[in-house]
Design brief:
The chain has seven helices and six strands; from the N terminus they run E-H-E-H-E-H-H-H-E-H-H-E-E. By secondary structure, the chain is α/β, with parallel strands linked by helices. The chain has a six-stranded mixed β-sheet with strand order 3-2-4-1-5-6. Helix 2 links the parallel strand 2 (46-49) and strand 3. The two termini are 33 Å apart. The mean pLDDT is 92.
Length: 220
């Protein structure tokens, strides 16, 4: 039986000029995960990353800490995150000023997400159904790579991980609210596991983050 391990990137630089750069905590989360995966004895046959910097940088530090050596790496941009900036741009912020509190930003983010997933407007460069189709294709390619007894590790973002989880739980027909609830809780460097066998791809765990139990847990 093969396995597919989905890893969310380490904490990015929220609020900075370049969000795609890992924060110092994001680097440490990645190193902690790598050490944890080494303790578990995970040795992937190859690694897949999205094309975002936070994906490849997380992979670099996990791979180094895990001691995987020169494992084959493939880049698949279909594992990239949705455009959250465009989503936010379509919804007026429900607060005044330019520096919202975390609670205010979360309210704004959820309003923007709900609008995108509802399909009520079509001015997005990538609609929610198109996003799901993109991730579904990426999942199919990764599942094919994990056939037999292969172990494939994918470094991606919270949105695609929530999409994979929703797709597998809902028979490839998830709805927006299910995805939204999953997307809210994906932890930085959390692990989601899919096994690949005679029945195809089956979800066996979601958002596991035991390597952060002593500290360092973040959602953004």
């Amino acid at each position: 039986m093969g396995q597919l391990i989905l890893v969310r990137h380490g904490q990015a630089s929220w609020g900075s000029d370049d969000y795609d750069v890992l924060s110092p905590l994001g680097w440490e989360q990645s190193r902690m995960l790598g050490a944890n995966l080494a303790e578990r004895g995970l040795e992937p046959t190859h690694v897949i990353t999205g094309s975002m910097r936070r994906h490849s940088d997380t992979a670099d530090h996990v791979q180094a800490a895990a001691g995987w050596g020169a494992v084959e790496r493939v880049r698949d941009e279909a594992w990239n995150e949705y455009d959250h900036l465009q989503m936010l741009d379509r919804v007026p912020p429900p607060f005044e000023g330019e520096d919202p509190t975390p609670a205010q930003f979360q309210e704004w983010f959820e309003l923007a997400t709900d609008r995108w997933t509802s399909g009520a407007a079509d001015e997005y460069a990538e609609s929610f159904p198109t996003f799901l189709d993109r991730v579904s294709g990426a999942l199919d390619r990764a599942v094919s790579a994990a056939a037999g007894t292969a172990s494939v590790v994918v470094f991606t973002s919270g949105g695609p991980i929530a999409a994979v989880t929703a797709l597998l739980l809902a028979g490839r027909t998830p709805n927006g609210p299910v995805w939204s609830q999953l997307n809210k809780v994906v932890v930085n460097t959390a692990v989601t596991k899919v096994v690949v066998g005679r029945r195809g791809a089956s979800l066996v765990s979601f958002n596991e983050h035991c390597h952060l139990e002593m500290g360092g847990l973040t959602y953004r």
